[in-house]
User: Fold this.
Amino acid sequence: MKTIQLSYGLGVNVPRVKFSLIALLFTGVLATLVITPFISLDPINMPKMFVVVSGASLLLPFIALEFKGLWKINRLTFFLSFTLIFFMAVALFFNSAPRADQFWGTWGRSTGYLTYIAFIVCMLTAAILASKTEMPIIRKTFERVSYFISGYALLQAGDLDPIEWSQRAMVATLGNINFMSSFLGLASISFFSRLLMERISATAKMYFFLLTLLNLYLIWLSGSIQGLGIFASGASMVVAIYIRNRWNAKLTTIWLFLVTPLGIAVFLGTAGFGPFSVLRQETVIFRRDYWLAGLRMTLDNWLNGVGIDSYGDFYQQYRDRDAVVRTGPQRVTNTAHNIFLDVSSGAGVLAGIAFVAIFVATLALIYKMIKTGNFQSTDVAATGIFLGFVVFCLISINQIGVGVWGFIFMGYLQGSAVRQKNEKVNREAGRLGRSATEKFNDPRLNLVTGMVTLMCGIAGFAIGLAPVVTDAQMLSAVKGKDFGNMKEVASKVTATQAHKERYLGLLLQEGRDAEAFEFAKKTLKSNPRSEIALRIIGSEASAPKSLRIASLQKLIERDPNNLEFTRYIQGLIDALK
Assistant:
């Protein structure tokens, strides 16, 4: 069967296919690398959200033109993707969480409705492309991005970072040591796959061996074991495929039955349980509290969720007394540290089921490929990376620079499974079939496609850029101590709750209590659970007693298991009555 020859020269003769591939790759690269440390309050996540939203908008026309093919190659994935987007939209409009935070994402995370749509678009685009031909360029591009992350982390390890961040840590361009660690863990899976599965020269083997060692050393040096766990899970799958190709499926099953319980036991050890409790990690202990709170949110708000990316406004309400005592009442979080729980708690059970089902469907395709033993080089690496990404989703936050690659490789595996199935049918039927280029090519649509792509790109650029501009304006106003400008920026539709609360906090610092009280009342209209707004109103002597009491009661509702805090607030309420 003829295929499109893809290399760094991008030898593709179909313009819209070539453009879509380039757009997909640039979206992944820039989403990982872009930072804006000198112009934004949030220099990590907002610019990454802007990149994935802009990139996805350029890919939408390609998906529309390939809709029939997409429906034929993987109806289940398309249906689940549409279901996820639909139920997240329902949550967006039918709960009390701030619309801006749900749409663009909470400040410091930026994993709102738009980001999830962008992830799905990247996944479906990769699936369409991979259904036609193997695309080693995706893997090669991902590996080369990791070179930059490794290099930057190495500079930070040597205290040579040219950027003055708020803290000195090995975070590269991802904002957190766990994200940096996870990214290098995923990249190391790809390098390990080359070592084990590919026929390459001794020099090349040494090169990839040293890259793997360097990444694992940086992960160890950072103190984050997350990357090691991700690497171990993905590398175990690569070994399983190696055993399948070298010997047989039975030995593969034995291997998986051996390593899976071991992996679970090690993970339980990091949580302080079992024979590996010596590996106990406090951050894993904390995650237990975050997961339980996310589960309670999901069960109590099963239909619409608490609001997309709004976990932080509800964590204190749903944490138990053990969490308050174990971590201290001051330790709070705005994410469940489990992406599946983030989706289900934010958008409801139905959205959560659809999200999980997309992953399960991909795992089922991997199982079929292992069973048939029909793996190509890129498939092996993508399978290991995807399994590592599943582990990442179970224990971490959906960081955009990492998550975008997880969805791209998930889409690649979905398309690759279909491509291999079609090739098998063609071989058995004794026909070559039309080439992939012919299947893609429709010159009559090139002009229209170009115009529609341009319009979609402009729209996506504008929508994704809006909160980034607002964030930059707020930073400028804060630096200049321009309270008039701060109020104007914080009042914008694109302002997050963090911007409003930043303005309120600075007003209190400057003793401008009357202004803070008036803006706090406006803030509560967009977010009835804003802690700082409730505190301001509850403590304002000139406010009606009924309003103050209602605000103080809501503070108790927000944090019912913080007994010292609730006793103090109840005392204030009793004094007002």
Observations:
- The first helix runs from residue 15 to 33.
